[in-house]
Every structure is written in structure tokens, then in C-alpha cells.
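Please predict the structure of the following assembly.
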Amino acid sequence: DAKTTQPNSMESNEEEPVHLPCNHSTISGTDYIHWYRQLPSQGPEYVIHGLTSNVNNRMASLAIAEDRKSSTLILHRATLRDAAVYYCILSVFMNRDDKIIFGKGTRLHILP
Amino acid sequence: NAGVMQNPRHLVRRRGQEARLRCSPMKGHSHVYWYRQLPEEGLKFMVYLQKENIIDESGMPKERFSAEFPKEGPSILRIQQVVRGDSAAYFCASSPGASDTQYFGPGTRLTVL
């Protein structure tokens, strides 16, 4: 199974940009990189995903390294509501299966 | 379009009882996934179902746990003869297709006394 490596926790100041790194050195050519986040006492929430090119949406940006062995989730201006656990996940395609494997994620603390 | 719905949100059972957790996927979604989250840990995949079929149950404990997704009605995760170690948050997710983004419900928090 493809795996990802993330720092256990990070801190950032409110209204500052946040860069959350993820290593996935065993990624295969057809694996998408997904980011989810989980706010306290809630279910995970989809943030963004990409394959090769950088992606932007209203929540965040995803920067993918040229060799695809790492990626960075960018929150352009963190707010207190962004405090959550952020999961970087590879979608593993096995025939008609698509099983998301969650790691422990990065716990992001936002300092007011 | 309502999101993924799970009920009950909180469930308390005594050891040896049965727990039934329900998940109604988003409208138009025919793929359902169940995950378990122990306190202070990440989510662990349990089972992936399509309507009337179990596609992947590699994360399900071999005994006491079962899941179904009937043609009509919600998906059900059933835990028989619960033990204290089953206490966890159980999350359901749904997607329109096998490779699409998964949308999660709010979870059911099971407490076994």
C-alpha cells in the first residue's frame, strides 16, 4: 500500500500562510493525492486533490513536486477555524477498488 | 442536497449487546465506506460497499462485525456482542463512483459500558 509521511503537528499564527508538507515517495503513476481535514468532534472534510499539476480551490492550494514524491497543502491565510488534523492520502487503485488509507495526519494549531 | 447522514450520533451499549449504526449516503451516491477512529488515533478503513455488494472488507474484524448496503434504505454496520474495545467513533463516507472524492458523515460515537 502506498503510504504518506507527515509531521505530527505544526503551529501557525492567525492570518499567516500555512504550508503543510507530505512525503509520498512510493507513489505510483495513477495515484491521486488527496487532502482531508478533521475538525474537532467532526467527520473528515474533503479539502483538495490533484494528480500532477498544482491545484487551487476556495479552501486551499496544492503544490505537487515535479517527481510527485512530495506535496504541500497551502492555506493562504489561516484562521482559528482552520485548526484541525490534516490528512494527506493517496488513493490506491486496485482493480475496481478505491480504498483511502488514512495516516495519523498533521495536527495544525493556530495561534491568535 | 443533504450530506451524508448517520444515526444515531451517540450510542451507548452494555457489553454483550448489539450495536446497529446507520448511514444514508448523499443523493446519487452508490458507494459507501465505513471507518473506525479510536481516541487520539487516525481513521482506519473497515469496509467498502456498493448497493447489495461488499467490495472490500479487508479492514473488518473477522468476528462480530458485519455490514450491508441493501437496494433500498441505509447502509448498516452491525456489531454483535460488543466489548469495551469497540468504543470508538464510526464514520461513514459516500461517493458517486469508485474513484471519486468521498464525503463523510458526522459519525456515530459508540460507548460500551
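Chain B touches chain A through 25 residues (CB under 8 Å). The CA atoms of residues 89 and 109 of chain B lie 4 Å apart.
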